[in-house]
Specification:
Length: about 240
């Protein structure tokens, strides 16, 4: 470990905050992993990490972890031990599959970004997280969403832009807090946008540009006026 990193880790012992962005790291420094519950915020973005050690699970005090723009292909299940995590940023890596049950115990999560990876399946264990506000799975390889589970999603914003999704489940209309749904640049036909999402959901911003229908066709779909009532009401509220 170079001297340029040592002061950052020493400082982290006092402040609980450590940023080692763009340091060319190919592995996480061992002294950092020994900080245990002391560390609250960790930023290791823009490095060359391919794997995370299981010892990452020892950082039980972490609330904010950023691992964006690395080379991660897998995640250890020990990540699920970080029960205080509120923000987890993993965008722009090489992730394809996530450990089963990874998010089950991360009950304090508010923001998760897995954008710009190669993920093929929606992480179903995210659906029950009560405090989750934002899920970003844009620019992945999702082809389908788990219909039976999507109605349980607690997020306020769900970003599914730039995937290969061909159907939006009608159960999305049951999401209790979902206000913003982004599904631009997918493979949706007009019939793949359920009427319930327009008429019965809480969604007040529905972004569907770049699919297999025009904006005019969507506007003529039955129930679109109900969606526009919510859109307009929200716009007035924040005007």
């Amino acid at each position: 470990m170079g001297n340029s990193i040592s002061p950052h880790i020493e400082n982290a012992q006092k402040t609980g905050v450590c940023s080692l962005k763009n340091r060319g790291l190919v592995e996480i420094p061992q002294p950092l992993l020994r900080l245990g519950a002391t560390l609250r915020t960790l930023d290791l973005s823009d490095n060359k990490l391919k794997v995370l050690p299981s010892a990452i699970g020892n950082l039980t005090g972490l609330k904010n972890m950023t691992l964006s723009s690395n080379r991660l292909e897998t995640l250890p299940s020990d990540l699920g031990k970080l029960k205080k995590l509120e923000v987890l940023m993993l965008n722009n890596n090489n992730l394809k599959v996530l450990p089963v049950g990874l998010f089950t115990n991360l009950t304090h999560l508010k923001t998760v970004s897995l954008a710009s990876n190669q993920i093929t399946a929606f992480p179903e264990d995210m659906c029950s997280l009560r405090h989750l506000d934002v899920i970003d799975l844009s620019d992945n390889k999702l082809q389908a969403l788990p219909d039976g589970k999507m109605g349980q999603v607690q997020a306020v914003e769900l970003n599914l832009n730039s995937n290969q999704i061909s159907v939006l489940p009608a159960s999305l209309a049951s999401c209790p807090r979902l206000k913003v749904l982004r599904a631009e640049e997918n493979c949706l036909t007009l019939d793949a946008v359920p009427r319930e999402v327009l008429t019965k959901s809480q969604i007040s911003l529905l972004a569907l540009e770049g699919n297999l229908f025009s904006a005019k066709e969507l506007q003529e779909r039955e129930g679109y006026d109900k969606y526009m009532e919510r859109f307009t009401a929200t716009k007035k509220k924040f005007a």
